[in-house]
Task: structure prediction
Amino acid sequence: MFEFEKVGNQIIFIYHYGENVPPNWMRDRLKQDDELTYKSTFNFKTHHLYGDDKVRFEQDDYDLLVELYGPDETYSFVFAELAGEYYKILEGVITKKISVFFHKSISLVPDYFYAENNLSIFAQIEQLVNEDIYIGGNHSVSIPKDEFDNLVNNFPNSYEKGLYAKSRISSILRNYFDSTSDEEFKFKRYLRKKPSKKGKNLIKKFQEYETTKFQFLLSKLESMLNDVNAYNEDTWQNEILQIILLLYPKYILSFKSVFVKADIGKRKFLDFMLVDSNGHIDIIEIKQPFEDSIMTKGVYRDNFIPKRELSGTVMQLEKYIFYLNRWGEKGEKLITQKLKDKLPLNLEIKIINPKGFIIMGRDNNLSAQQKSDFEVIKRKYNNVIDIITYDDLLQRLKSTIYQFQNSEAIVE
Result:
């Protein structure tokens, strides 16, 4: 066994001989090789010897030393030296290429250096990190002591390694033998119980910027809705489209009046075509808001039904999608060729079951039953991603702002 002891500005590694260990094995190894390795982790040379052990080592007659002082009970080596706020472990003792520093407030224990089956912890770290390691204290790149303790406590043991090996084997054998036990499930269940890597709150990092951005968009939309008649249709659509692109970041581009082949010799022009980062397209219809454009005030067989403007817009969108799907690969090539100067390099348009958005109307004056029936209508159309009223759009902006303002609660 061994222990660490702080003496002056040094930490001393003190090895205690056990009953069944030759009392001179360290001395013999150093005499023979000028170095020794203990527990596959600690590598000492003769110049690391400390105090009386260094003096005794230099004596050639070991039998005389035993006669004068008795057999060795301990053997001591200088392990680390104080450098500012940290003890620096001597070069080559536990690592080959990097240096390891422990803050002076930390008491060293054997478990910090090797795991089960004498697996050197810092030798493993050195394979992954190519810079000096600081543990504890306030150094700019130090590992907090609690995190280092967590790393040590969760270092892979033989049980975990065995589970992993079995899971790899069973994942193959289960394809051929029904009786194979599900070791992969056991391994995943074991991992779920272990502490996970602590992630960063990415939302919080951009919290202030994103909150300001969406607050501006909310203010912009509220202002537009308070003065709808001040905008012509083109200006209104362009303003709303910018809000949509910021609220749905999957879309990187939008194009206006893209034609679609309909029947022989006929074309249809999309109001707006949206393109995502992989080139897949969706389409969007943007209507200026009018109070009574989506649901009837009267009921038909106890149900509120969509007004002609809403049902007509849905029908129009469904036909556009039908034409696009029918156009297929030929349409992809034609649209890509037409827009090639505006598309990112090597991005090609893809027509794969495009979906549609409809933005129109207000629902702030609808009754609860009208809103309920409107929701049924919205969910009825498979090809439409969403039918969004301007009040929906307001609420989505408010929810997004809330998300960024309360990022810790949401993420953690």
Observations:
- The chain is about 40% helix and 20% strand.
